[in-house]
Amino acid sequence: MSKALPLILCGRHAHISRAASDALKPQFDESAKEEIPQLLHKHSSFNEQIAGVVFGGGFDQKSFDRIRASVWNYSKEHVPDGNLFTTWLRNDLKTKYHNNPLIPEKQELYGQEVGQRAKKRLLALLASGHLQPPKDKVYFF
């Protein structure tokens, strides 16, 4: 992969998210500076499509569903064909991690571990053709 693929990384805790973001590099470049629907729309041309939206463990099913619905609602109003497809990745909360995010001294290590697991899943999806072009599917890591 010659150029980092753009991602949107969503995390509830900035220091954990920074560590996860660092672990995703250099293959993936995250950004969450704008609202997700507008960011997906801005980058909807094939040459600059967002490769995926990655959610950390701080988002429960209800929060995830609400964010995903906001993308669909935005698409219906602002996108000519009504589709802002993206790949959705969620932290599998059943997965055991070596570092406990509840222990302040372990949070950065936990973030790195989350980023490494997400990166491994993203690279597997990319290799199997499930990441590009985005297909509006949900995968767990």
Describe the structure.
With 141 residues, this protein is of the alpha/beta class. The protein has a single domain, classed as Rossmann fold (3-Layer(aba) Sandwich). The chain is 40% helix and 13% strand. The protein is built from 4 helices and 5 strands; from the N terminus they run E-H-E-H-E-H-E-H-E. It has helices at 14-24, 36-42, 61-78, 107-127, and strands spanning 5-10, 28-30, 52-55, 88-90, 138-140. Strands 2-1-3-4-5 form a 5-stranded parallel beta sheet, covered by helices on one side. Strand 3, helix 3 (61-78) and strand 4 (88-90) form a beta-alpha-beta unit. Helix 1 packs parallel to helix 4. It starts with a strand and ends with a strand.
